[in-house]
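Postdoc handover notes: sequence design on the structure in folder B. Input C-alpha coordinates:
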Protein backbone atom coordinates (compact mmCIF):
# COMPACT_ATOMS: atom_id res chain seq x y z
CA UNK A 1 0.00 0.00 0.00
CA UNK A 2 2.81 2.42 0.87
CA UNK A 3 4.40 1.66 -2.50
CA UNK A 4 1.18 2.62 -4.24
CA UNK A 5 0.49 5.68 -2.13
CA UNK A 6 3.72 7.50 -2.97
CA UNK A 7 3.16 7.85 -6.73
CA UNK A 8 -0.37 9.07 -6.10
CA UNK A 9 0.94 11.66 -3.63
CA UNK A 10 3.52 12.78 -6.15
CA UNK A 11 0.86 13.05 -8.84
CA UNK A 12 -1.36 15.07 -6.54
CA UNK A 13 1.57 17.36 -5.76
CA UNK A 14 2.54 17.77 -9.38
CA UNK A 15 -0.99 18.51 -10.53
CA UNK A 16 -1.46 20.87 -7.57
CA UNK A 17 1.68 22.78 -8.49
CA UNK A 18 0.53 22.84 -12.10
CA UNK A 19 -2.83 24.35 -11.12
CA UNK A 20 -1.13 26.93 -8.90
CA UNK A 21 1.23 27.80 -11.76
CA UNK A 22 -1.75 28.33 -14.08
CA UNK A 23 -3.50 30.47 -11.48
CA UNK A 24 -0.37 32.57 -10.97
CA UNK A 25 0.13 33.10 -14.69
CA UNK A 26 -3.51 33.95 -15.02
CA UNK A 27 -5.81 32.77 -17.74
CA UNK A 28 -5.04 34.22 -21.18
CA UNK A 29 -2.29 36.42 -19.82
CA UNK A 30 -4.66 38.37 -17.61
CA UNK A 31 -3.53 41.11 -15.30
CA UNK A 32 -3.15 39.58 -11.87
CA UNK A 33 -5.41 41.92 -9.96
CA UNK A 34 -5.83 41.00 -6.30
CA UNK A 35 -8.45 43.55 -5.44
CA UNK A 36 -10.26 46.57 -6.84
CA UNK A 37 -11.76 49.56 -5.07
CA UNK A 38 -15.48 49.79 -5.80
CA UNK A 39 -18.48 51.90 -5.08
CA UNK A 40 -21.33 49.89 -3.68
CA UNK A 41 -24.68 51.43 -4.55
CA UNK A 42 -26.82 50.15 -1.73
CA UNK A 43 -30.58 50.45 -1.75
CA UNK A 44 -33.16 51.24 0.86
CA UNK A 45 -36.49 50.10 -0.47
CA UNK A 46 -39.82 50.74 1.12
CA UNK A 47 -43.46 50.79 0.12
CA UNK A 48 -44.97 54.24 0.64
CA UNK A 49 -48.49 55.07 1.84
CA UNK A 50 -49.88 54.87 -1.70
CA UNK A 51 -48.45 51.40 -2.12
CA UNK A 52 -45.67 52.46 -4.49
CA UNK A 53 -42.19 51.14 -4.09
CA UNK A 54 -39.62 53.84 -3.32
CA UNK A 55 -35.90 53.26 -3.59
CA UNK A 56 -33.26 55.35 -1.93
CA UNK A 57 -29.68 54.90 -3.12
CA UNK A 58 -26.81 54.93 -0.66
CA UNK A 59 -23.25 55.14 -1.97
CA UNK A 60 -20.81 53.09 0.08
CA UNK A 61 -17.14 52.18 -0.10
CA UNK A 62 -16.30 48.59 -0.91
CA UNK A 63 -13.64 46.39 -2.48
CA UNK A 64 -13.72 43.42 -4.77
CA UNK A 65 -11.16 40.92 -3.54
CA UNK A 66 -10.17 37.92 -5.62
CA UNK A 67 -9.36 34.82 -3.62
CA UNK A 68 -10.61 31.66 -2.00
CA UNK A 69 -13.11 30.60 0.59
CA UNK A 70 -11.65 31.40 4.01
CA UNK A 71 -9.49 34.37 2.94
CA UNK A 72 -9.59 37.27 5.32
CA UNK A 73 -10.37 40.75 4.02
CA UNK A 74 -7.42 42.87 2.89
CA UNK A 75 -9.12 46.09 3.95
CA UNK A 76 -11.53 46.87 6.78
CA UNK A 77 -14.41 47.73 4.50
CA UNK A 78 -17.28 45.97 2.71
CA UNK A 79 -15.52 43.18 0.86
CA UNK A 80 -16.96 41.17 -1.97
CA UNK A 81 -14.71 38.13 -1.99
CA UNK A 82 -14.93 36.68 -5.49
CA UNK A 83 -13.87 33.06 -5.51
CA UNK A 84 -12.50 31.28 -8.53
CA UNK A 85 -15.01 30.07 -11.06
CA UNK A 86 -15.09 29.47 -14.78
CA UNK A 87 -15.97 33.11 -15.14
CA UNK A 88 -13.12 35.47 -14.39
CA UNK A 89 -13.71 39.16 -14.98
CA UNK A 90 -9.97 39.79 -14.64
CA UNK A 91 -9.46 37.94 -17.87
CA UNK A 92 -10.95 40.87 -19.76
CA UNK A 93 -9.40 43.67 -17.76
CA UNK A 94 -6.57 45.55 -19.40
CA UNK A 95 -4.68 48.26 -17.61
CA UNK A 96 -4.25 48.93 -13.92
CA UNK A 97 -7.02 49.83 -11.54
CA UNK A 98 -6.28 53.55 -12.05
CA UNK A 99 -8.00 53.28 -15.41
CA UNK A 100 -10.98 51.37 -14.00
CA UNK A 101 -14.19 52.53 -12.48
CA UNK A 102 -15.91 49.84 -10.44
CA UNK A 103 -19.50 49.90 -9.28
CA UNK A 104 -21.50 47.22 -7.50
CA UNK A 105 -25.28 47.22 -7.43
CA UNK A 106 -27.97 45.03 -5.99
CA UNK A 107 -29.58 42.80 -8.57
CA UNK A 108 -33.07 41.40 -8.34
CA UNK A 109 -33.73 38.00 -9.88
CA UNK A 110 -37.43 38.20 -9.22
CA UNK A 111 -39.39 38.04 -12.45
CA UNK A 112 -43.16 38.56 -12.20
CA UNK A 113 -43.07 37.52 -8.56
CA UNK A 114 -41.17 34.31 -9.27
CA UNK A 115 -37.62 33.43 -8.41
CA UNK A 116 -35.64 31.18 -10.68
CA UNK A 117 -32.73 29.30 -9.21
CA UNK A 118 -29.39 29.62 -10.99
CA UNK A 119 -28.77 26.28 -12.73
CA UNK A 120 -25.48 25.28 -11.11
CA UNK A 121 -24.75 23.00 -8.18
CA UNK A 122 -25.08 24.70 -4.82
CA UNK A 123 -27.18 27.59 -6.06
CA UNK A 124 -30.24 28.36 -3.96
CA UNK A 125 -33.53 30.05 -4.60
CA UNK A 126 -32.73 32.48 -1.81
CA UNK A 127 -29.36 33.49 -3.28
CA UNK A 128 -28.55 37.18 -3.09
CA UNK A 129 -27.30 38.82 -6.28
CA UNK A 130 -25.07 41.72 -7.15
CA UNK A 131 -23.91 43.12 -10.45
CA UNK A 132 -20.44 44.55 -10.72
CA UNK A 133 -19.65 46.92 -13.58
CA UNK A 134 -16.08 47.76 -14.53
CA UNK A 135 -15.74 50.70 -16.86
CA UNK A 136 -12.48 51.62 -18.47
CA UNK A 137 -12.15 55.36 -17.85
CA UNK A 138 -10.96 56.00 -21.42
CA UNK A 139 -13.80 54.01 -22.95
CA UNK A 140 -11.96 50.83 -23.95
CA UNK A 141 -14.49 48.45 -22.42
CA UNK A 142 -17.37 47.92 -20.03
CA UNK A 143 -17.65 44.61 -18.19
CA UNK A 144 -20.65 43.56 -16.16
CA UNK A 145 -20.23 40.59 -13.84
CA UNK A 146 -23.00 38.92 -11.89
CA UNK A 147 -22.06 37.82 -8.38
CA UNK A 148 -23.98 35.20 -6.48
CA UNK A 149 -23.93 35.08 -2.69
CA UNK A 150 -25.60 32.37 -0.69
CA UNK A 151 -26.58 33.82 2.68
CA UNK A 152 -26.14 31.65 5.75
CA UNK A 153 -29.35 33.01 7.17
CA UNK A 154 -31.82 33.02 4.26
CA UNK A 155 -34.65 35.52 4.28
CA UNK A 156 -37.93 33.89 3.37
CA UNK A 157 -41.26 35.05 2.11
CA UNK A 158 -40.94 38.35 0.34
CA UNK A 159 -39.32 39.20 -2.99
CA UNK A 160 -35.63 40.01 -2.73
CA UNK A 161 -35.73 43.79 -3.23
CA UNK A 162 -38.22 44.25 -0.40
CA UNK A 163 -35.91 42.60 2.06
CA UNK A 164 -32.37 43.13 0.81
CA UNK A 165 -29.74 41.39 2.85
CA UNK A 166 -28.25 43.93 5.23
CA UNK A 167 -24.61 44.62 4.47
CA UNK A 168 -22.63 46.14 7.35
CA UNK A 169 -19.57 48.34 6.94
CA UNK A 170 -16.97 45.61 7.50
CA UNK A 171 -18.83 42.61 6.13
CA UNK A 172 -17.15 40.09 3.90
CA UNK A 173 -19.50 38.55 1.35
CA UNK A 174 -18.41 35.32 -0.21
CA UNK A 175 -19.46 35.43 -3.86
CA UNK A 176 -19.05 33.52 -7.05
CA UNK A 177 -18.90 35.17 -10.48
CA UNK A 178 -21.44 33.33 -12.61
CA UNK A 179 -21.82 35.43 -15.73
CA UNK A 180 -19.97 38.22 -17.53
CA UNK A 181 -21.29 40.42 -20.32
CA UNK A 182 -18.86 42.87 -21.85
CA UNK A 183 -18.26 45.16 -24.77
CA UNK A 184 -15.00 46.46 -26.13
CA UNK A 185 -16.84 49.07 -28.18
CA UNK A 186 -18.75 51.02 -25.49
CA UNK A 187 -19.37 53.77 -28.04
CA UNK A 188 -18.64 53.92 -31.74
CA UNK A 189 -17.87 56.77 -34.12
CA UNK A 190 -17.73 55.84 -37.74
CA UNK A 191 -18.04 57.35 -41.22
CA UNK A 192 -20.60 56.68 -43.93
CA UNK A 193 -20.66 53.36 -45.80
CA UNK A 194 -18.51 51.61 -43.19
CA UNK A 195 -19.34 48.19 -41.73
CA UNK A 196 -18.35 48.40 -38.07
CA UNK A 197 -18.63 45.46 -35.70
CA UNK A 198 -20.23 46.23 -32.36
CA UNK A 199 -18.54 44.05 -29.80
CA UNK A 200 -20.57 42.04 -27.28
CA UNK A 201 -19.18 39.02 -25.49
CA UNK A 202 -20.31 36.90 -22.61
CA UNK A 203 -19.29 33.94 -20.47
CA UNK A 204 -21.36 31.73 -18.17
CA UNK A 205 -20.12 29.43 -15.41
CA UNK A 206 -21.77 26.29 -16.78
CA UNK A 207 -21.90 24.45 -20.07
CA UNK A 208 -24.88 24.42 -22.44
CA UNK A 209 -26.40 27.46 -20.82
CA UNK A 210 -29.83 28.49 -21.94
CA UNK A 211 -28.88 31.77 -23.62
CA UNK A 212 -30.95 34.32 -25.46
CA UNK A 213 -29.04 36.92 -27.46
CA UNK A 214 -30.91 40.00 -28.51
CA UNK A 215 -29.84 43.14 -30.40
CA UNK A 216 -32.05 46.20 -30.64
CA UNK A 217 -31.61 49.65 -32.09
CA UNK A 218 -33.00 52.68 -30.31
CA UNK A 219 -33.04 55.69 -32.63
CA UNK A 220 -32.93 59.12 -31.07
CA UNK A 221 -36.45 59.88 -32.26
CA UNK A 222 -38.67 57.24 -30.84
CA UNK A 223 -38.98 53.72 -31.93
CA UNK A 224 -36.91 50.78 -30.90
CA UNK A 225 -36.46 48.06 -33.46
CA UNK A 226 -35.22 44.51 -33.09
CA UNK A 227 -32.21 43.70 -35.26
CA UNK A 228 -31.43 40.16 -34.20
CA UNK A 229 -32.42 37.52 -31.70
CA UNK A 230 -31.38 33.97 -31.01
CA UNK A 231 -32.41 31.42 -28.40
CA UNK A 232 -30.10 28.50 -27.78
CA UNK A 233 -32.86 26.31 -26.29
CA UNK A 234 -34.81 26.23 -29.56
CA UNK A 235 -31.93 27.12 -31.86
CA UNK A 236 -34.14 29.67 -33.60
CA UNK A 237 -32.95 33.06 -34.75
CA UNK A 238 -34.43 36.15 -36.30
CA UNK A 239 -32.64 38.90 -38.19
CA UNK A 240 -29.00 39.05 -39.26
CA UNK A 241 -25.71 40.57 -38.18
CA UNK A 242 -24.53 37.98 -35.63
CA UNK A 243 -22.68 34.81 -36.49
CA UNK A 244 -24.68 32.06 -34.76
CA UNK A 245 -21.77 29.65 -34.67
CA UNK A 246 -19.78 32.22 -32.64
CA UNK A 247 -22.50 32.57 -30.00
CA UNK A 248 -21.58 29.18 -28.53
CA UNK A 249 -18.10 30.56 -27.87
CA UNK A 250 -19.51 33.63 -26.15
CA UNK A 251 -19.22 36.04 -29.08
CA UNK A 252 -22.46 37.86 -29.86
CA UNK A 253 -20.88 40.75 -31.78
CA UNK A 254 -23.05 42.50 -34.32
CA UNK A 255 -21.82 43.53 -37.75
CA UNK A 256 -23.62 46.49 -39.29
CA UNK A 257 -24.61 46.86 -42.91
CA UNK A 258 -22.87 49.79 -44.65
CA UNK A 259 -23.69 52.80 -42.50
CA UNK A 260 -26.24 55.35 -43.62
CA UNK A 261 -27.83 58.28 -41.88
CA UNK A 262 -30.46 56.11 -40.20
CA UNK A 263 -27.78 53.78 -38.79
CA UNK A 264 -27.29 56.28 -35.98
CA UNK A 265 -28.70 55.41 -32.59
CA UNK A 266 -28.06 53.30 -29.52
CA UNK A 267 -27.47 49.59 -30.15
CA UNK A 268 -28.46 47.40 -27.24
CA UNK A 269 -26.89 43.99 -26.79
CA UNK A 270 -28.79 41.81 -24.31
CA UNK A 271 -27.69 38.44 -22.99
CA UNK A 272 -30.35 36.61 -21.06
CA UNK A 273 -29.53 33.52 -19.05
CA UNK A 274 -32.52 33.24 -16.71
CA UNK A 275 -32.74 34.72 -14.18
CA UNK A 276 -29.86 37.01 -15.21
CA UNK A 277 -30.12 39.66 -17.83
CA UNK A 278 -26.98 41.53 -18.84
CA UNK A 279 -26.99 44.26 -21.44
CA UNK A 280 -24.86 47.04 -22.86
CA UNK A 281 -25.96 50.16 -24.65
CA UNK A 282 -23.61 51.07 -27.47
CA UNK A 283 -24.23 54.51 -28.96
CA UNK A 284 -23.19 54.81 -32.60
CA UNK A 285 -22.48 58.24 -34.06
CA UNK A 286 -21.74 58.97 -37.67
CA UNK A 287 -18.80 61.30 -38.12
CA UNK A 288 -17.06 62.63 -41.20
CA UNK A 289 -14.22 65.09 -40.92
CA UNK A 290 -14.33 68.27 -42.99
CA UNK A 291 -11.73 68.92 -45.67
CA UNK A 292 -10.68 72.57 -45.63
CA UNK A 293 -9.52 74.66 -48.59
CA UNK A 294 -8.65 78.33 -49.17
CA UNK A 295 -8.99 79.94 -52.59
CA UNK A 296 -5.59 81.65 -52.17
CA UNK A 297 -2.03 80.35 -51.81
CA UNK A 298 0.26 80.73 -48.83
CA UNK A 299 0.77 84.45 -49.52
CA UNK A 300 -1.61 87.00 -50.93
CA UNK A 301 -0.25 90.25 -52.37
CA UNK A 302 -2.57 93.22 -52.62
CA UNK A 303 -2.09 96.93 -53.16
CA UNK A 304 -3.45 99.52 -50.76
CA UNK A 305 -7.22 99.72 -51.03
CA UNK A 306 -7.54 96.81 -53.44
CA UNK A 307 -10.59 94.68 -52.51
CA UNK A 308 -10.31 90.87 -52.34
CA UNK A 309 -12.69 88.14 -51.21
CA UNK A 310 -10.98 85.11 -49.66
CA UNK A 311 -13.03 81.92 -49.41
CA UNK A 312 -12.59 79.16 -46.85
CA UNK A 313 -14.46 75.98 -47.77
CA UNK A 314 -15.21 73.21 -45.28
CA UNK A 315 -16.40 70.21 -47.22
CA UNK A 316 -17.86 66.76 -46.61
CA UNK A 317 -18.47 66.80 -42.87
CA UNK A 318 -21.14 65.15 -40.72
CA UNK A 319 -23.03 65.99 -38.55
CA UNK A 320 -24.10 69.44 -39.68
CA UNK A 321 -22.77 71.52 -36.77
CA UNK A 322 -19.54 73.15 -37.81
CA UNK A 323 -17.83 76.35 -36.82
CA UNK A 324 -15.70 78.38 -39.24
CA UNK A 325 -13.85 81.43 -37.98
CA UNK A 326 -11.38 83.77 -39.57
CA UNK A 327 -8.68 85.20 -37.37
CA UNK A 328 -5.50 87.11 -37.83
CA UNK A 329 -2.26 87.30 -35.89
CA UNK A 330 1.15 88.89 -36.30
CA UNK A 331 3.67 86.54 -37.89
CA UNK A 332 6.67 87.50 -35.79
CA UNK A 333 5.46 88.37 -32.29
CA UNK A 334 4.03 85.79 -29.96
CA UNK A 335 0.70 85.15 -31.59
CA UNK A 336 -2.27 86.96 -30.15
CA UNK A 337 -5.00 86.06 -32.60
CA UNK A 338 -7.94 88.35 -33.16
CA UNK A 339 -11.18 86.94 -34.51
CA UNK A 340 -12.30 88.90 -37.54
CA UNK A 341 -15.75 90.36 -37.95
CA UNK A 342 -15.88 91.15 -41.66
CA UNK A 343 -16.79 87.56 -42.41
CA UNK A 344 -19.98 86.08 -43.76
CA UNK A 345 -21.06 82.50 -44.32
CA UNK A 346 -22.84 80.61 -47.07
CA UNK A 347 -25.66 78.29 -46.07
CA UNK A 348 -25.00 74.58 -45.52
CA UNK A 349 -24.89 72.59 -48.74
CA UNK A 350 -26.16 69.02 -48.49
CA UNK A 351 -24.54 66.26 -50.56
CA UNK A 352 -26.06 62.99 -51.70
CA UNK A 353 -23.58 60.95 -49.68
CA UNK A 354 -25.10 62.47 -46.51
CA UNK A 355 -22.38 65.04 -45.77
CA UNK A 356 -22.44 68.84 -45.70
CA UNK A 357 -20.33 71.76 -46.87
CA UNK A 358 -20.09 75.39 -45.78
CA UNK A 359 -18.00 78.41 -46.84
CA UNK A 360 -16.84 81.46 -44.91
CA UNK A 361 -15.88 84.56 -46.89
CA UNK A 362 -13.44 87.16 -45.69
CA UNK A 363 -13.66 90.56 -47.39
CA UNK A 364 -10.30 92.31 -47.44
CA UNK A 365 -9.58 95.93 -48.32
CA UNK A 366 -6.21 96.35 -46.69
CA UNK A 367 -4.08 99.32 -45.78
CA UNK A 368 -0.30 99.23 -45.53
CA UNK A 369 -0.57 98.53 -41.79
CA UNK A 370 -2.21 95.16 -42.56
CA UNK A 371 0.84 93.90 -44.37
CA UNK A 372 2.69 90.96 -42.82
CA UNK A 373 -0.25 89.58 -40.85
CA UNK A 374 -1.16 85.93 -40.93
CA UNK A 375 -4.81 85.26 -41.74
CA UNK A 376 -6.15 81.90 -40.61
CA UNK A 377 -9.36 80.06 -41.29
CA UNK A 378 -10.17 77.79 -38.34
CA UNK A 379 -12.69 74.98 -38.69
CA UNK A 380 -13.98 73.20 -35.58
CA UNK A 381 -16.13 70.11 -35.81
CA UNK A 382 -17.14 67.31 -33.46
CA UNK A 383 -15.14 64.84 -35.58
CA UNK A 384 -11.91 66.77 -34.93
CA UNK A 385 -9.80 66.65 -31.78
CA UNK A 386 -8.19 69.95 -32.72
CA UNK A 387 -9.53 72.46 -35.26
CA UNK A 388 -8.17 72.44 -38.80
CA UNK A 389 -6.29 75.66 -39.60
CA UNK A 390 -5.41 77.02 -43.05
CA UNK A 391 -3.45 80.26 -43.31
CA UNK A 392 -2.01 82.80 -45.71
CA UNK A 393 0.22 85.80 -45.17
CA UNK A 394 -0.98 89.11 -46.49
CA UNK A 395 1.46 91.42 -48.18
CA UNK A 396 0.27 94.96 -48.98
CA UNK A 397 2.20 97.36 -51.21
CA UNK A 398 1.76 100.93 -52.41
CA UNK A 399 0.09 101.05 -55.78
CA UNK A 400 2.65 100.59 -58.58
CA UNK A 401 3.47 104.23 -59.67
CA UNK A 402 5.75 103.57 -62.66
CA UNK A 403 3.01 103.79 -65.24
CA UNK A 404 1.68 106.88 -63.57
CA UNK A 405 5.09 108.52 -63.88
CA UNK A 406 5.41 107.43 -67.50
CA UNK A 407 1.99 108.89 -68.16
CA UNK A 408 2.79 112.14 -66.41
CA UNK A 409 6.11 112.43 -68.20
CA UNK A 410 4.46 111.56 -71.49
CA UNK A 411 1.65 114.05 -70.99
CA UNK A 412 4.08 116.76 -69.95
CA UNK A 413 6.12 116.04 -73.08
CA UNK A 414 3.06 116.37 -75.26
CA UNK A 415 2.05 119.62 -73.55
CA UNK A 416 5.58 120.96 -73.82
CA UNK A 417 5.64 119.98 -77.48
CA UNK A 418 2.38 121.80 -78.16
CA UNK A 419 3.51 124.88 -76.24
CA UNK A 420 6.79 124.84 -78.14
CA UNK A 421 5.00 124.43 -81.45
CA UNK A 422 2.64 127.30 -80.64
CA UNK A 423 5.51 129.51 -79.58
CA UNK A 424 7.38 128.69 -82.79
CA UNK A 425 4.26 129.46 -84.71
CA UNK A 426 3.60 132.79 -83.05
CA UNK A 427 7.16 134.09 -82.96
CA UNK A 428 7.75 134.16 -86.74
CA UNK A 429 4.34 135.64 -87.36
CA UNK A 430 5.09 138.32 -84.88
CA UNK A 431 8.30 138.93 -86.72
CA UNK A 432 6.34 139.15 -89.91
CA UNK A 433 3.81 141.54 -88.47
CA UNK A 434 6.64 143.50 -87.05
CA UNK A 435 8.08 143.72 -90.49
CA UNK A 436 4.77 144.69 -91.93
CA UNK A 437 4.42 147.61 -89.59
C1 LIG B 1 -16.49 38.06 -32.67
O1 LIG B 1 -17.03 37.89 -33.96
C2 LIG B 1 -16.78 38.95 -34.86
C3 LIG B 1 -17.48 38.65 -36.15
O2 LIG B 1 -18.84 38.46 -35.98
C4 LIG B 1 -15.31 39.15 -35.05
O3 LIG B 1 -15.06 40.25 -35.88
C5 LIG B 1 -14.63 39.35 -33.71
O4 LIG B 1 -13.23 39.41 -33.88
C6 LIG B 1 -14.98 38.23 -32.75
N1 LIG B 1 -14.45 38.57 -31.45
C7 LIG B 1 -13.76 37.71 -30.72
C8 LIG B 1 -13.25 38.22 -29.42
O5 LIG B 1 -13.51 36.59 -31.10
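Designed sequence:
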Amino acid sequence: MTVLRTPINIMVWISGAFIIAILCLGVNGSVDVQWLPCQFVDEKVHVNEEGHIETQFIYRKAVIQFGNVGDSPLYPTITFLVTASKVDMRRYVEGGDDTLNCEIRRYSTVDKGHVKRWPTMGAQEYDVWFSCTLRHTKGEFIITTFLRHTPSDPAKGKVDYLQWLTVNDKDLLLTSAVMVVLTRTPSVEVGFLKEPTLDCQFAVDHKNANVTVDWKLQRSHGKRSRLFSYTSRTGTSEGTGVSIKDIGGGNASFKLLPTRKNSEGTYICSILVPPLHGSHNIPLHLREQPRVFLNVGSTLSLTVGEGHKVTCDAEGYYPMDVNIEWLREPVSDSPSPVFLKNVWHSSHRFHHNGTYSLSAFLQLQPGLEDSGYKYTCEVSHTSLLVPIRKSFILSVTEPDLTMWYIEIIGLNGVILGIVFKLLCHFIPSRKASYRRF
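Context for whoever picks this up: Residues 197, 201, 243, 246, 251, 253, 255 surround 2-acetamido-2-deoxy-beta-D-glucopyranose (CB under 6 Å). Don't rerun without checking with the PI first.
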